[in-house]
Amino acid sequence: MTQVKDKTVIEFDGNAYIREEFSEGSARCFLITDYCTDPAASLEVQTKAIEVDAQGYLYNLATVVNGYEAADIWEDDEIISMLKAAPRERVEAAYITLSSLK
Hints:
Elements: E1 4-12, E2 15-22, E3 27-31, H1 32-37, H2 39-66, H3 76-83, H4 87-99
Antiparallel strand pairs: 1-2, 2-3
């Protein structure tokens, strides 16, 4: 089974793509919108963002889901909103997190 070795966000022709590199050396790219409609794929992107910057991802997700920057202490309803985040919201937060590291 082929394992994903690395994921990066790249921009080309005004579109954002996720580039996956595999352990055997091959690679593939997906438009960010592909990840927005596939819950399993959005969880893969979320996992990478958490690996790279867990705290940054959480704050970005809170901002995307709740519509405002998170405080240092979250209320229960804010946490519940993040747990119920839609695939598109998870991808947006992951994109913000991964692209801010460049």
